[in-house]
Amino acid sequence: MIINSENRKNLPLIDPSPRVDTSLFRVNNLEEANDLIAKHLCPHEIRIQDNEELLDVHFRGLMRQDMQLLNIGYGSHVDITATENENYYFSQSTLSGSTCIYRNHQMIPTRVGDTVIVSPHTQYKFNLPTGSNRLVIGIEQDIMSEYLESILEEQLTDRLVFDLDVPNQENLQIWVNHIINLSQTLTSQFSMATNRRLFQSQLESTMSLMLCLFEHNFSDDLRNTQDKTTPLRIKRAKDYIFENIKEPITVIDVAKAACVSPRALQYAFREEVGMSPVQYIKFQKLKAVHRALQMADPSQQVTAILSDHGVLSLGHFAKSYKEVYGKTPRETLKS
């Protein structure tokens, strides 16, 4: 089966060399190239189809555990088989030249500006003519799956798998604009790539667009999703925290009670409550201890009241308590 992209007009405008300047490695030895790609990305088998002297494997970009942004060129005409991609969803955007992607009996030819997404645990092969260049974005599969769970507000029963198809013209243009802006932002604003909180916004916007612009086995669920269940999940989480406020509560405990993954709980609390689950638990524990201190007999021990509320770090808690209420727990008890 051949999916033809030749009849599409008005291909997206794409900068043939987006600003991904950091060189990760550059080699012209086939064995060394295979070893480096396996070390940094996933095991590959490269087969040279023409002059071996033209081989120039150059990887530039950003590599993090959660997301990778790579400008990849091979110089020579090569066939590439990814043998063990178990960890990442890879969007493959053709920057220059052309690419043919093969999976089972399916062949997808791509031109400049075309993008396809390959999923983990999927066997596929690339044919890259001389001079072809790609911009690759990899998203770690657990992070992508948990983000999808947070949107659908339920745990996934199947693995997320993207169709190996080139999307329509409008969606392609949106994606191309995003990856150009992303590459420029991460290379010109270094703090965006190194600060976890700043980077999180870039990661989430990339995952959102990937899930919305490219077809996959949960696309229909996404299109039919209405944001109704988040309040219910949040209520379950809050009820659990309230009922167990005297216990040492963890985010994992709360997520189980709300029937969501810990990461989905994090996303939901940030959107609906304006703080993380950990911050909310801490705030509610401070309130509960404050009420208990106000109602307690002054002869009681502060440490006993704090311990009764599952407070394990007394000094740290007392400091947070004073920041909120302007006095120490002992001062509240005696007042």
What does this structure look like?
The chain has 335 residues and is an alpha+beta fold. It folds into 2 domains: 23-221, Jelly Rolls (Sandwich); 227-335, Orthogonal Bundle (Arc Repressor Mutant, subunit A). The protein is built from 13 helices and 11 strands. The strands form 2 sheets. Strands 1-3-4-11-6-9 form a 6-stranded antiparallel β-sheet, sandwiched between helices. A 5-stranded antiparallel β-sheet has the order 2-5-10-7-8. A hairpin with a 2-residue loop joins strand 7 and strand 8. Helix 2 (141-152) crosses helix 9 (262-272) and helix 7 (230-243) crosses helix 9 (262-272). It is elongated and about 90 Å long.
Radius of gyration: 26 Å
Strand order of the largest sheet: 1-3-4-11-6-9
Number of domains: 2
User: Which geometry do the CA atoms define?
Assistant: elongated
The profile of the biggest β sheet is: 6 strands, antiparallel
**CATH classification class of the largest domain:** Mainly Beta
Mean residue pLDDT: 84
Q: How would you name the oligomeric state of the polypeptide chains in this document? A: single chain
**Low-confidence parts:** 1-19
Q: Which architecture of the largest domain does the CATH hierarchy give at level 2?
A: Sandwich
Alpha-beta content class: alpha+beta
CATH topology of the largest domain: Jelly Rolls
Secondary-structure element sequence? EHEEEEEEEEEEHHHHHHHHHHHH
- The CATH superfamily of the largest domain is Jelly Rolls
Number of strands: 11
Distance between the amino and carboxyl termini: 80 Å
Strand content range: 15-25%
Helix content: 40-55%
List the total number of helices. Answer: 13
